[in-house]
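Lecture notes, continued. The same structure-token format from the folding unit now serves as the input rather than the output. Read the line below as a description of shape only.
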């Protein structure tokens, strides 16, 4: 694990300071004056001058960095810019380079897992897509542990396998929903999760979740288990709304949800099968952990 701040401290700052020190020396400032202007030691200025500090070509060749060095160098040399203003200008450039730009690219090269997130990446933004997506994946991971650690969950897995999914707040398609690649299967009486949760890997459970949301349900997670009248009855007895739908009807889930008045926060959708269609029960709720705990406490307790 390497933070983008480490790249700033270990790669950008030595290069930037050495460029600025060189610029100021060329403008006639002494080593002492350069050291005072930059808030560093004279020995550090000497190391910069003698090329004893490693510098990254990416920054040396970036026009924005070169322009800022020239502007700050001129301002500090003439007294038109204070060290505080110089710091602010440098901070602004650093934040810019972190926002889907040069520093972000370098960070992705060292942390390849970041590259899967499209758009402008901001690891500092508390509302960034990256942070939200990772929180959803983390929620699914924790919920999966709840299920797989519960005795008897394997017996609830249907022939087609189960999947536990959770979506992003503004999910518009399957790519916005995290689930288990390859689904969860019963392997010799043990619920087996083959891979870590990913986005865009579930069509079945994710589609049900999207359709329920399209029907007006305020839910963000879903899990499918085998259908059994006793399963549905147990969930109803625990206070959860149970809604039956016809899998062969047009927009069956949307219609079923729309027709249900005031379903509970965590509710049940189920169908009893059809020609070539396995009977299935779906538990939907506000997040994956709530859904998992509902199954554990109601059906496996």
């Amino acid at each position: 694990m390497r933070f983008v701040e480490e790249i700033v401290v270990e790669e950008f700052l030595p290069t930037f300071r050495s460029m600025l020190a060189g610029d100021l020396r060329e403008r006639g400032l002494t080593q002492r004056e350069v050291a005072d202007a930059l808030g560093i030691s004279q020995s550090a200025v000497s190391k910069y001058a003698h090329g004893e500090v490693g510098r990254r070509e990416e920054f040396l060749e970036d026009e924005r960095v070169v322009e800022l060095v020239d502007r700050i160098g001129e301002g500090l040399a003439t007294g038109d810019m204070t060290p505080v203003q110089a710091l602010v200008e440098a901070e602004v450039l650093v934040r810019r380079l972190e926002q889907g730009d040069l520093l972000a690219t370098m960070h992705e090269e060292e942390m390849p897992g970041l590259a899967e997130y499209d758009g402008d990446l901001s690891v500092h933004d508390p509302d960034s897509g990256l942070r939200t997506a990772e929180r959803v994946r983390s929620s699914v991971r924790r919920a999966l542990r709840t299920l797989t650690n519960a005795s008897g969950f394997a017996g609830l897995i249907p022939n087609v396998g189960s999947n536990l999914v959770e979506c992003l707040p503004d999910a518009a398609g399957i790519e916005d929903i995290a689930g288990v690649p390859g689904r969860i299967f019963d392997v010799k009486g043990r619920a087996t999760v083959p891979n870590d949760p990913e986005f865009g890997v579930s069509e079945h459970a994710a589609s049900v979740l999207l359709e329920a949301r399209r029907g007006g349900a305020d839910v963000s997670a879903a899990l499918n288990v085998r259908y059994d009248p006793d399963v549905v009855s147990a969930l109803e007895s625990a206070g959860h709304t149970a809604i039956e739908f016809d899998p062969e009807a047009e927009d069956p889930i949307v219609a079923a949800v729309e027709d249900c008045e005031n379903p509970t926060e965590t509710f049940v959708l189920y169908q009893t099968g059809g020609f070539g269609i396995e009977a299935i029960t779906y538990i939907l709720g506000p997040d994956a952990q709530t859904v998992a705990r509902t199954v554990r406490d109601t059906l496996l307790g």
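Point for the exam: The mean pLDDT is 90.
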